[in-house]
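User: For a reading group we're discussing how well predicted structures match intuition. Take Lipoprotein. Before you show the prediction, I'll give you the sequence so everyone sees exactly what went in.
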Amino acid sequence: MPSSLSEGRRNMRTALLVAAVASLSGCYDDPTLIYGRSLEDMTFVVTDPQMGIYPNTSVLDDPYNPFRLSGVGAETKWDIQSGASPVAGFYSWATVLAQGPYGEAQYYVGVQLAAIYQRGLADQASLPQTREMAVKAYQSVLDNFPDAVTYDASGTIAYDLVTPAYKGVVELGGTVTGGWVMVKTSSGADRAVKP
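Assistant: Thanks. Here is the predicted 3D structure of Lipoprotein, as structure tokens, for the group to look at:
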């Protein structure tokens, strides 16, 4: 009897040690495990046509948002951006934007909405609204976050987001508002400016 009790304690300690090591080593950073559902086969349903567009925070109440209760970590948003569907990417960036607005988050909301629209990842009734939401998200970068930047893969070289946001509006058939124009720099590159 005593040996089975001590063996049980040993097994319990081993299990706790394995769990502690796994949690410290990052084994649970996979959003699929954290949220208990696949982030690949999601379909976007518009529950609020302003969702994901600053200053709207309705994404935090959207029942389709897998991140509404737990939020999204600083590194997790990039994992989702690079490894999950655009629908999961939208919910991730829109949640980040709602919890602490900044231009990079608004820009990536637009990128994800555009991808949802272009790949047909919304229900048919939501596709036209999804395109309009993408246009509004890009325009919001221009209106609310004109100094927004993001970084290259090395994380060291920043580039502005107003130019790709401007192009995003135009590529989706929208009209850029607010006095923004596209000019050519001396090196021949496009640059969105507001004279």
